[in-house]
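Justification of resources, computational component.

The compute hours requested in this renewal are based largely on the per-chain cost of generating structure records like the one below. Each record pairs the submitted sequence with a full structure-token output. That output is archived, and it is also reused by downstream analysis tasks.
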Amino acid sequence: MKAPRTFAALTAQDVANAVREAIPAIATSLRPDVLSALGDACACESDRRAQGIIAQIIENDAIGRRDGVPICQDTGSVWIYLEVGEELSIPAGIFSLVDEAVADAFTQAKLRMSILADALVDRTNTKTNTPVFTEIGIRPGKGATLHVMLKGGGSDNASRVIMLPPGAGFASIREEVRKCVLEKGSAACPPLIIGIGIGATFDKVGTLAKKALLRPVGVPNPDPRIASLEQELLDVVNATGVGPAGLGGASTALSIAINTAPCHIAALPLAINMGCCAMRSVSIELADDGVEIAEVKRHEIELSQVPEAEQPIEIRLPASKEQLAQLRAGQSVTLTGAVYTMRDAGHVRTLEALERDGALPFGLDGATLLYAGPTPESAGRPLGSVGPTTASRMDFATPALYASGIASTIGKGARSSAVARACKDFGCVHFTAVGGIAALLATYVKSAEPIAWPDLGTEALVRLEVEGLPAFVGIDTQGNDIFSALHA
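The structure output for this chain reads:
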């Protein structure tokens, strides 16, 4: 598709128009290369649960494209990387117009606003999902390429930068990647796409890794030496058995892409940037005769051959402690009844209420908390998309909430041993849900009623009525933890 007009030189408005058009498209559908790789993984996966989870991720993409809703509720921070030919001038004021375009696109497409004014002193939501995080690179020739990525917080939080000693070598890099996946991979919504940067400086190596995520799955580094290391790392990661959603299997990662750069003789910088199964980016070629955006190819994948998973146990909420005591870690369940969305800021406020009043606020005794920040109403449903956020971020408050009357929680990824002990001490259950299938999970939500904290935006306390919401028992009332058992 073409921009409304042609141009002889790159202008700020042309770039902003391309961004405005790209964001709704990448928020509601997977990259074609990622979708194709998921189909291959689904066909090759021998673990039935893992295969079923991949099938859900593929189905989620179909729902997102059909209904125009986000495939993940975390529509992320917006990262823009503009590569400009050295013969082409960079237009003035380019990124102020890009900020306006992003704010407009997020509002019109009903995407979730997740950006705060300041990380430390002013953690209020800007309500525009801006500012945009930007990079500019210079390359030979003329013309330009615009890369747009929506990067979720869960996968970025699972990433890391390590300044290795120069003598550490590839063996240490391999071990750091393996450890990162074992420790954080389950929270980053596997199957993963992992970008790795090696070299440059502390401030640049992270960008190297993020740029690696732009490379299509299955396309190796042009240097055969590095391509060989990419394959070796992919084999190491998939041998961990972390698997889709962190629940076991051979498909922990779809791809590992490495970018290298020069560095100081005293350094070996390493950055590992986790990309989730909902990898959302597009590369747009800006040419002298207009802006051309590559058409998204529709890759239909046959799911009829995917075997049925185990018959889930039907749980009606609120569940009694006696009912919860019958569940065992790893079991498949469906949840029907009331759940309450609560995230980081809500946990802080709930702890404050407990300290002040000695009881849970808003009648939450016996309730189930869903760690989620949904997108607005869309497609005729109460929520456009809703899915679990990283459960471990709530570990600081969970034991106290279990002790005070919360019966169960729902999130994604592994939890601390303190949460497992609290489940055993207070007869509670933590359910784990699949991340990256928020369009699919929203179809199980029948109503959404705001309860408190409207100033928190997507982090407000909302009562959802769900019917048949799929999940797994992550930690049972005996303190048995599926993640500890799988990743020991």
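The chain has 14 helices and 16 strands. The mean pLDDT is 92.
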